[in-house]
Amino acid sequence: MPRPPQDVTDAELAILNVLWDRGKATVRELAEELYDKSSASQHATVQKLLERLEGKGCVSRDRDSWPHTFEPAIAREDLIGRQLQQTADKLCDGSLQPLLTHLVKAGRLSAEDRQSLRSLLDQLNQESRRQGKK
Question: 54, 77, 123, 134 — which has fewest CB within 10 A?
Fold first, then answer.
């Protein structure tokens, strides 16, 4: 039985955010981006966080170059989906509907966001009809 994906900590997420923005980076580049003045201990911290992310399948390491470079192995959208599903599993018996309803009712959606959501729902409805689903 496959092991369920593990949560990503806030510190790990900070590294992923840099990698998503840059594409790839070395430990030194990440430490310099994340800390005002990077030190040996901060390099070690970044290295440890990268090892954890690598173990979780969230980053990949290019061992053919020196220094090694790291790049995201998971897309931001995939991590968002995974995190939302984990939250739904914990709070809503696995259903995303209560989460989505809450986000919509919270009133933080712009007119553009609402239109984008309507378009997505319309598209999903059309695809379901084409496939003979309700």
Answer: 134
